[in-house]
Design a protein that fits this description.
The protein has 1276 residues and is of the alpha+beta class. The protein has 34 helices and 44 strands. The strands form 9 sheets. An 8-stranded antiparallel β-barrel has the order 2-3-8-9-11-13-14-15. The protein has an 8-stranded antiparallel β-barrel with strand order 25-26-27-28-29-30-31-32. Helix 7 packs across helix 12, helix 17 packs across helix 18 and helix 24 packs across helix 28. The N terminus and C terminus are likely disordered.
């Protein structure tokens, strides 16, 4: 069988199926209703803005309606396309259920909507340099399907599209009108649709909120400029349809309405007729008066002057007495003898006699007012005034009416005295402007006049500069002329002063007099310099208070001879300095039991965590397998913690010198920090367990004051002397001591440590100061602790970095300190035999365990018993460290250690042999008593323990007993003064802290003035250099630009020089940490004193030095208020930048990190400050950042302060020139509001305060608490 017939049959069936499928679509008809707009109700409001993107300075102009009272809206018709294929409803109520999914739009039938009034919608741009007129604009409307929102309310996205439209643009820059097309501009916004039914009428109300951008590009005077005009439409569209008429009345030819009897019928528009309004008919006139025969035509030739009053719609020209009507031109000409635009200037004496009907009158050209002048005319020439391109030549003239009256008549008051100024703008020649100044004050023989109020208006309302005229409404004004007849008309806050050479003419009539006034234009008193100076006043007040405190207590800081005598009187002997100082409340026994420390560790993930935990378990079972020198690993109960100390116990008695030996990482520093109660030296997350007791009492906050802790770091100010370092420690830590008592304590410590020969020498060590030796510097650090007469002195590696001889001398000194009735504990790496022999007791640490504890004499026998005898020729201390450093020998010691019975602190404290004969080591446990918590039970066991006699020297025991009784060791009197009289109260007063730190910082700056002088000299040189670069700035556009550049550089200079604070703080960071931990002062006291001196000496004074050269050389304003505001704003900004640098430095760990963060912050602040880019031109999502920049407020303050009092000549090529333009106009051009000066100054001051508070907050976060501010330990 052939395939051809079958293929033909299949094709026929497919075609039939396709036709059948498409047939419903093709034949389906929906319903489209035509809704006519209620033009009155479809009202909108318009405004907008323009951004010129190509001018040298980005300019933003806001548009407002020229006639806000005018009605604007849409007219036309809309199509309502109902969803579905059902026929159109015949009743309005039947439409509501079908509105879901319906669409509203303009179609070919309804055509686009017309924006009325079609004759022109005028928008004026602020500050009045641009105006736009919209002419015959049509808009297509469309919506997405309606979505129900509430009862008979719907939501949709409504789109407006300009299908045809033009805008007429006029500006001062381009005076010639220019036609811009806006066809194609569009916007889509969410809209709400409300549907109502009344009888047969359906009403839809659509909300409108469009912002349509229109891009333009045009040329003027050979310059191409472009930008964006944004037109905002806000309001509603109201569309109505009455259902029930045949064919919907052929809308828009007619509309369906409901008659009085309720029936529906068509009402046809003009030009249409028939039952369905589909028959063209009749004539429709745009002027209804034509149909009534009432048209009136103005005469081509008015009647001779003076013209009679006009009747009807036409208004005739009126001429005054000094004018006559010119029939050929239709205007008023001056009569003979009178000249000027207003015919107010007399030329001869005769015309004055004729005008005033008198004799003896003269026509005067005097500049000053004289009695007898009733009105005075000024005819001005604008040729060289800079206003020629703005004001039409020959139209600028002024007339002042003094209201002088003849004899016998009561003189008029100042209310009747006024001046008028007339001028015509070049871009609006047919619409002159008149400004009337009322209530003017005139004085004889004076050329000036001051008026209370000003009112300006155009001859025809709605001129291009109406918004500028509105800005000066009611403002005072002044008229003044110089001897060379140059006159100025100055309205307060007007964009420029009208200044031009003028010719004066006035009739002087004998006997005529006017009331002389004394009105003066006053401006509100400005307190801006005072507001700007608030931070400086606070700084000066603080510095003055601290200086006064130092003056009143200068004896505290003096070391003169009369204080030495007073100190001798207090101590009870003339040689008080030669007697050792002893603690007033000695500790007989220090015990520590089960002391442990664990720190968290960061584990890996997945299989690494499993391997780490397996290794930890193996090490717990076989500790000897670990590497030598490593710290203890995590326990099974704490899988994420590492044990630094493992249950260490021991004891030390009064008069003993105890040494703690061990390799690096063995736990020496941790043990000493816990014994001293200096938990700040430990990791903040550490978990501390065990107990530390002084004479059986737990280590509480009160007991901690009896312990002096000397960390390994001995950072001190290199410019201070040895005596001064010990003195300020005594002043701060003996807050209630008198000057003599402080001197006695200082002398006693200096003598005890053998520092008399270097007492007046500087400490040195850095900053190019050689100073004393390392051992002497270490003894100074010890002396700063000894002034508090501590019962226990703990030192962390005091011999590190010292040569053997110096280290041995230091050990001998410490031995003497211990023999004076103290317990001295210290750590070191590898003591010499002589140093080791000075110890009364020693502890050997390894991996957080105490391997050995006992007197040095028993060390060799103890190691020999464990199979590790000391080789011949090897020092025992060296052998001890070698044994715990070698993995093999350490494994042997750990095995023996774990097999021995651990001894408690109580066992080690019993008897002379009990304290040292047993090698103590306790396995790591998790259940030890917390150092912070209840350790009374452990300590109570030691209450009855007899005191250790580890110090065999009877003199030591006698010293301890004598110290306890407050008696001198040698019978020569008490050497300690206040230190031996009572337990010290460590918390000093805030004023004392501030004064001491202030004094110390000031002494450091004075003795090492390199940085201070560098700041001052650099400020002077840079001020002179920058002043030369911006020398004598002019009062034109270039001068305005130079002022912007000058302010920009000044702010950047003082911002980036604040980075010197970074090095200053970082060099003292270690010293401050040590002293804060030791309870010398509060962190805030140090920062406040530092901030005051830094601000005054390195920020404020350089501002004055810089400005002394820069300000006069640049030629900025010389008024006292302006200069003071400049200085105070700049000083507050420099102080704020110093505070920001302090904040960043306090919160940073290194100087490099602080410098990097500071530079990034400053660069970001500069970029968004408005100095480099107009904030209004920034994208909206990032524009807000300029409010966060401290540069913005300082920059605005300086620019407003400088520009508000000057006038600029604008002469840009291709643009209209203008002279004497107020500087505030330039500020508006670059986006600065001149009215915000006070606000900007206040915010600038608040930035200083805020950044200073931020520095204090960060300091308290990173700094440890003083030793008197918290408990002995904390558990993290």
């Amino acid at each position: 069988m052939r395939a051809g017939p079958w293929l033909a049959l299949a094709s026929w069936w497919l075609a039939a199926a396709a036709v059948a499928a498409l047939l419903p679509v093709a034949t389906a008809q929906g319903c489209t209703l035509t809704l006519l707009l209620n033009a009155t109700a479809s009202a909108i409001s318009m405004n907008g803005s323009a951004v010129d993107t190509t001018k040298p300075l980005a300019l933003r102009v806001d548009f407002v309606p020229a006639h806000p009272e005018a009605a604007l809206g849409f007219e036309g018709a809309l199509s309502l396309v109902l969803a579905g294929t059902d026929p159109c409803p015949t009743a309005a109520a039947d439409v509501l259920p079908r509105l879901v999914g319906a669409q509203v739009q303009t179609t070919d039938i309804t055509e686009p909507l017309l924006l009325y009034p079609t004759g022109g919608i005028q928008l004026n741009g602020n500050p009045g340099v641009v105006n736009l007129t919209l002419l015959e604009n049509y808009f297509a409307i469309s919506s997405t399907p309606l979505v129900p929102a509430a009862d008979d309310a719907f939501t949709t996205d409504l789109t407006g599209l300009s299908t045809n439209g033009t805008v007429l643009s006029k500006s001062l820059a381009a005076p010639a009108p220019e036609v811009l097309s806006v066809t194609g501009m569009n916007d889509t916004k969410a809209s709400t649709v409300a549907a109502t039914v009344q009888g047969s009428t359906l009403t839809l109300t659509l909300s409108v909120s469009w912002l349509m951008p229109s891009y333009y590009e045009s040329q003027s005077a050979g310059i191409t400029y472009a930008g964006t005009n944004n037109y905002a439409f806000t309001g509603q569209i109201v569309a109505q349809a009455t259902l029930g008429c045949l064919g919907n009345c052929s809308a828009p030819n007619g509309r369906c309405v409901t008659a009085a009897d309720g029936t529906a019928g068509c009402t046809c528009s003009c030009g249409w007729a028939g039952p369905n309004c589909d028959i063209a008919s009749g004539f429709c006139s745009s002027f209804p008066a034509e149909l009534q025969g009432q048209a009136q035509v103005c005469p081509s030739a008015p009647a001779p002057a003076p013209a009679p009053p006009a009747s009807g719609p036409c208004q005739a020209q009126v001429c005054n007495e000094r004018q006559q009507y010119n029939a050929s031109t239709g205007s008023c000409d001056c009569r003979a003898g009178w000249e000027g635009p207003g015919c107010d200037a007399c030329q001869t004496d005769a015309v004055c006699d004729s005008y005033f009907s008198t004799s003896g009158a003269t026509c005067s050209d005097e500049v000053a007012f004289q009695q007898g002048m009733q009105f005075k005319a000024y005819t001005c020439d604008l040729t060289n005034s800079g206003l020629k391109g703005i004001i039409e030549p020959g139209t600028f003239y002024m007339v002042c009416n003094t209201s002088a009256l003849p004899p016998g008549q009561e003189a008029a008051s100042s209310v009747d005295q006024a001046c008028t100024v007339h001028f015509t703008l070049s871009q609006a020649k047919d619409n002159p402007v008149t400004c009337t100044a009322s209530e003017c004050s005139f004085r004889a023989n004076s050329s000036s006049a001051n008026c209370v109020s000003t009112h300006c208006e155009c001859q025809t309302p709605g001129c291009a500069v109406q918004n500028i005229l509105d800005d000066v409404e009611g403002k005072p004004c002044s008229i003044d002329c110089t001897a060379d007849s140059t006159c100025s008309f100055n309205i307060q806050d007007f964009i420029f002063d009208l200044v031009a050479p003028c010719q004066m003419a006035s009739c002087v009539v004998p006997g005529y007099t006017f009331v002389e006034g004394d009105y003066r234009i006053t401006t509100s008193k400005s307190y801006n310099p005072v507001i700007a100076a608030v931070p400086m006043m606070v700084l000066v007040a603080l510095a003055a208070f601290l200086s006064l405190y130092l003056t009143r207590h200068r004896a505290l800081f003096s070391s003169r001879r009369h204080l030495d005598a007073a100190a001798a009187a207090v101590s009870g002997a003339a040689a008080a300095a030669s007697v050792r100082q002893r603690p007033s409340n000695p500790v007989h026994l220090l015990t520590f039991d089960g002391v442990s420390c664990a720190v968290p560790v960061q584990e890996g993930r997945g299989w690494r965590r499993w391997l780490r935990r397996s290794k930890a378990a193996a090490e717990e079972g076989q500790p000897a397998a670990a590497e030598a020198g490593a710290t203890a690993n995590v326990t099974a109960s704490h899988p994420q913690q590492k044990l630094i100390l493992r249950s260490v116990s021991g004891a030390a008695a009064c008069g003993e010198l105890v040494g703690v030996l061990g390799p690096s990482g063995s736990g020496k520093t941790t043990l000493l920090a816990m014994l001293a109660g200096s938990s700040e030296d430990l990791d903040r997350r550490s978990t501390l367990t065990g107990s530390v007791c002084l004479d059986g009492q737990p280590l509480s906050a009160a007991n901690r004051r009896r312990i002096g802790f000397v960390p390994q770091d001995d950072s001190m100010l290199p410019t201070l002397t040895v005596e001064e370092c010990i003195r300020y420690s005594a002043i701060l830590r003996l807050p209630h001591a008198s000057a003599a008592e402080v001197q006695a304590s200082v002398q006693s410590v200096v003598a005890e440590l053998g520092l008399q020969h270097v007492a007046r020498s500087r400490v040195g060590g850095r900053s190019g100061i050689r100073g004393i030796s390392g051992g002497e510097r270490r003894r100074v650090t010890i002396g700063m602790e000894l002034v508090t007469a501590p019962a226990v002195l703990v030192l962390d590696e005091p011999t590190s970095g010292l040569d053997s001889y110096t280290a041995l001398n230091l050990m001998r000194t410490l031995k003497q300190v211990a023999s004076a009735g103290r317990i001295v504990l210290l750590s070191f790496h590898q003591p010499s035999p002589a140093m080791f022999s000075l110890l009364d007791s020693s502890y050997l640490m390894a991996r957080g365990r105490c391997i050995f504890a006992g007197p040095p004499a028993s060390t060799e026998a103890w190691f020999a018993q464990r199979g590790l005898p000391c080789p011949v020729g090897t020092a025992i201390a060296e052998h001890m460290l070698d044994a715990v450093s070698d993995p093999g020998s350490l494994q042997q010691l750990l095995a023996a250690h774990d097999g021995e019975q651990p001894a408690s602190a109580a066992d080690m404290a019993h008897g002379s042999g009990a304290a040292h004969a047993h090698a103590s080591s306790v396995a790591a446990t998790d259940g030890g008593k917390t150092l912070r918590g209840d350790a009374v039970s452990s300590c109570a066991k030691l209450d009855t323990v007899p005191l250790s006699n580890g110090a065999s020297d009877g003199d030591v025991s006698a010293a301890c007993a004598a110290a306890e009784m407050g008696m001198p060791l040698s019978g020569k009197g008490s050497p300690g003064g206040v230190a031996a009289a009572a337990a010290p109260q460590w918390r000093p007063s805030l004023s004392r802290e501030l004064a001491v730190v202030f004094w110390r910082t000031l002494v450091d700056i004075v003795r090492n003035p390199a940085l201070l002088l560098l700041h001052w000299v650099l400020a002077l040189l840079m001020g002179a250099f920058v002043g030369a670069v911006f020398f004598d700035v002019s009062f034109d556009v270039s001068g305005a630009q130079n002022r912007v550049g000058g302010m920009f550089f000044v702010l950047c200079f003082f911002a980036f020089t604040s980075l010197t604070t970074v090095d200053l703080l970082m060099m003292e960071r270690r010293m401050v940490l040590r002293e804060v931990r030791g309870g010398f002062y509060r962190p805030g006291s140090y920062l406040l004193a530092k901030m005051v001196l830094d601000a005054l000496l390195l920020r404020v004074i350089p501002v004055f030095i810089f400005s002394a050269a820069f300000y006069p050389m640049m030629g900025l304003q010389s008024g006292a208020s302006t200069v003071a505001t400049f200085l105070m704003v700049l000083a507050a900004f420099a102080g704020a930048m110093g505070a920001l640098s302090l904040s960043v430095t306090v919160g940073s760990s290194t100087a490099g990190l602080a410098s990097l963060i500071m530079n990034i912050l400053l660069l970001i602040a500069v970029v968004v400050s408005g100095m480099l880019v107009n904030p209004q031109s920034m994208p909206a999502w990032i524009r807000w950042t300029h409010w966060l920049s401290p540069f913005y407020y300082a920059y605005c303050s300086l620019m407003i302060n400088e520009m508000s009092g000057i006038k600029i000549d604008f002469e840009l090529k291709g643009y209209a020139a203008a002279k004497n333009v107020r500087g505030t106009v330039f500020l508006e051009t670059i986006g600065i509001n001149a009215d915000d000066l006070t606000t900007d100054i206040i915010v600038n001051d608040c930035y200083y305060l805020g950044l200073a508070l931020l520095a204090f907050a960060l300091l308290y976060l990173v700094m440890p608490r003083p030793r008197w501010a918290g408990p002995a330990a904390r558990k993290a």
